[in-house]
Amino acid sequence: MRYQISGKQIDIGEALQTHVKTELDEILGKYAGRPTEASVTFSKSGHEFVSEAIVHLSTGLTVQAKGQQHEIYSAFDAATEKMDKQLRRYKRRLKDHHKERSQPVELSDAGSYILAAREESDEAEQTEDAPVIIAEMESKIPSISVGEAVMQMELSHAPVVVFRNEKHNRVNVVYRRDDGNIGWIDPKS
């Protein structure tokens, strides 16, 4: 597994890097058989340290957790506790998907754009219909089942997941509704 351990405007020592690798190996060894990449970022927010951990699994799923504490090791431990809880909750489903899938998850390329909000004071620009694009990126759309998409959304704490439904190969969307339930959009053509 590849590790990317970094700090935003703080130094990360060898002891902390060793601690991160050891803890992630232990947690991921219990639940996820094939993690491919882990990215851990440490930063400081006021008087607290913040640790963000993102782990990509070979099944195409991404597990994400964040912890805040007064000490840097405690912040990482808080993040790993959350990750451990997420993986424990989905352990049975993670193992079932490993058995059913003989091929790795297929990913399709897609464009992703961030649109700028309009200023009320800009009267000349308000007459135009097209918003201004401020960022353009490449995204990957996985080919997975609806259950896996819901699990991906909950593991990564994302409000929405766009995926290609592996049953009929059409683009679908799952999202978290305002009432706390999960919505699924499946266009017919």
TrEMBL record:
GO terms for molecular function: ribosomal small subunit binding. GO terms for biological process: negative regulation of translational elongation. It is found in: Cytoplasm. It comes from the Bacteria. GO terms for cellular component: cytosolic small ribosomal subunit. Residues 129-183 form the Sigma 54 modulation/S30EA ribosomal protein C-terminal domain. Pfam families: Ribosom_S30AE_C, Ribosomal_S30AE. Its main location: cytoplasm. Keywords: Cytoplasm, Ribonucleoprotein, Ribosomal protein, Translation regulation. The keyword Cytoplasm applies. InterPro entries: HPF/YfiA_ribosome-assoc (IPR050574), HPF_long/plastid (IPR034694), RHF-like (IPR036567), RHF/RaiA (IPR003489), Ribosom_S30AE_C (IPR032528), Ribosom_S30AE_C_sf (IPR038416). Associates exclusively with 100S ribosomes, which are dimers of 70S ribosomes. Required for dimerization of active 70S ribosomes into 100S ribosomes in stationary phase; 100S ribosomes are translationally inactive and sometimes present during exponential growth. Belongs to the HPF/YfiA ribosome-associated protein family. Long HPF subfamily. HAMAP family: HPF. This is Ribosome hibernation promoting factor. It comes from Cognatiyoonia koreensis. The gene is hpf.
